Amino acid sequence: MPTLVSERVGQLFLDTPAGRDRLEYTEYGAGDAWVVLLHGQLMMRRMHQPLARALAAEGLHVVTLDLLGHGRSDRPADPLAYSVGEFAHQVVALLDHLGAPTAVVGGTSLGANVSLQVAVDAPDRVRGLLLEMPVLNNAVEAGIMAFGPLMFAARYLPFTVRMARGLTRPVPRGVVPFWAGIVLDTLDQRPDAMAAVMHGLFFGMVAPTARQRRAITAPALIVGHPADPIHPAADAAMLADELPHARFVRARSFLEWRASPERLDAEAAEFARSCWETPRRRRRTPS
Known about the structure:
Shape: globular
CATH class: Alpha Beta
Mean pLDDT: 92
Largest sheet: 8 strands, mixed
Helix content: 40-55%
Number of domains: 1
Strand order of the largest sheet: 1-2-4-3-5-6-7-8
Radius of gyration: 18 Å
Low-confidence stretches: 282-287
């Protein structure tokens, strides 16, 4: 039987030049072995609920965050509010809010890229990186083809986004399978905020540069999927070669961590525990 752990919803507020933004998160478990999980683009933190519960059952203190413009966090319609750098700042603010000096930081797709940026911007706060489907050099064209039409629809055909929201929002999430509910959550968008999120990400830096990535010293577990054009396994394998303390795990398919998560859950739990059992490497400082 799986171990039952506590779950708590919280919020934090960030002051920005444009005003005050509210972010919402969920904590699973307790203790000082922190893990932060970040969702994919246009998705919400609930997508990581099964993994968060599995990690918390192993004694880890897991937090899932809705980044700005996603889920139950605020959704301003200003493209300047959205970038990988801004999202990384929100993760560090979350750690400060929780009183967590360091954490294993990870996520899926956009969440993986944001985790890398946290490791670049605040290396002393990152104990390890748990990355699934990073979006790097080999995914640019497919990403434009997949998300470009969505940005166009949100900006110039907003009624299509409102229609999708109107059809999917009334469906009770408890009566559909979990991942069907995640799809419904993803379709619950506001056209102005949706367009702003994608505009900000399209025309900003998508991920740290290769030079910055090679300087990351935190241990990393990187999961790649075969036959996924938007998240090619080549990007995950390339990142594993770039990071000096990384291990690459190839998923059997895109659906493995969703439909049969036991193997990858065990890999993630073992990696996260090892980050807390092993003394954190310290950067050398000039003498």
